[in-house]
Design brief:
This protein is mainly alpha-helical. It is about 70% helix and about 0% strand.
C-alpha cells in the first residue's frame, strides 16, 4: 500500500525534529536556552508524544543550578578525565579486521565519506568528529528535512532516493552502535535528564528500524 505523499512529508518533518532535538542534547552541556526550549508549552507536546516527561528533571532545582549540574554530568559522562563513555561511533564499533577501537579509525572515515557523498558534511564550527553522535543525528536531520521538502514539492523520485540514503546510513552506522551507547549512559548516569533522553534515543532508533523499511517499501509500491 502506498503511503500518501502529504503523510510522508509530515512524518519526515516530525522525524527531523526528533533528530534535531537529540543532536542538541548530546552535542554539548545543555544551555539555559535549551532548557527553556524544553520547558516551553509548544515543546511539551512533542515530548509527550515521545512518552517523555521532564518533571523529575525540573522539579528540584532552579534553572541556573540545573545548568551547572548538567554541565558537570555531561563532562563526567562524555569527556572525562577518567573513565567516560565516548559519543563517537569509532569507539563502539570494531574495524573490519578487528582493530582496537580508536578515534579517527576506519569507521570514522566511512562516516565522513558517506556524508560527503550525500553532499553534506560536518560544519567547520563543530569541534567534534563526523562520527560523533550529535553529528550523525544532525546529518540525518538534514537528510530528512530534504526528504520532507521533496514530498511537499511532489518530487517523488527525489524523496524516494533520499529515503534510501537515510536507510543506508541507518543500517551501516546508527543501528550498529547507538543503542549500545545509550545502554551505557543509562547504566552510568546519575541524572534523570540523560537517563530519559538516552531512553528516548533508543526508542527512536528502534522506531527508525521498523519505519525506514516500511516507508521505503511503501514508496516503491
Amino acid at each position: 500500500m502506498v503511503t500518501p505523499r502529504n503523510d510522508m512529508a509530515e512524518m519526515a518533518t516530525a522525524r527531523a525534529n526528533v533528530y534535531g532535538l537529540l543532536a542538541d542534547i548530546f552535542r554539548e552541556e545543555p544551555s539555559e536556552a535549551l532548557l527553556s526550549k524544553l520547558e516551553a508549552p509548544e515543546f511539551s507536546g512533542a515530548l509527550h508524544a515521545l512518552n517523555l516527561s521532564l518533571d523529575e528533571v525540573f522539579e528540584n532545582a532552579s534553572q541556573t543550578q540545573l545548568v551547572e549540574d548538567l554541565a558537570l554530568e555531561f563532562t563526567r559522562l562524555f569527556i572525562g578525565p577518567g573513565s567516560h563513555i565516548s559519543p563517537n561511533e569509532s569507539m563502539h564499533v570494531e574495524g573490519r579486521f578487528g582493530e582496537p577501537n580508536s578515534f579517527w579509525s576506519e569507521q570514522t572515515v566511512k562516516v565522513k565519506k558517506f556524508m560527503e557523498a550525500a553532499g553534506l558534511q560536518v560544519a567547520d564550527s563543530f569541534g567534534g568528529m563526523p562520527d560523533h553522535l550529535s553529528a550523525e543525528f544532525e546529518f540525518m536531520q538534514r537528510l530528512v528535512l530534504k526528504e520532507a521538502e521533496a514530498w511537499s514539492n511532489e518530487e517523488h523520485e527525489l524523496g524516494t532516493n533520499i529515503l534510501e540514503i537515510e536507510k543506508r546510513f541507518y543500517e551501516e552506522h546508527l543501528s550498529q552502535w547507538v543503542n549500545n551507547f545509550c545502554d551505557k549512559v543509562i547504566d552510568a548516569t546519575e541524572h534523570p535528564f540523560y537517563r530519559q533522553f538516552s531512553e528516548v534515543a533508543k526508542g527512536f532508533i528502534d522506531f527508525e528500524q521498523e519505519n525506514l523499511t516500511t516507508f521505503s517499501a511503501g514508496t516503491q509500491a
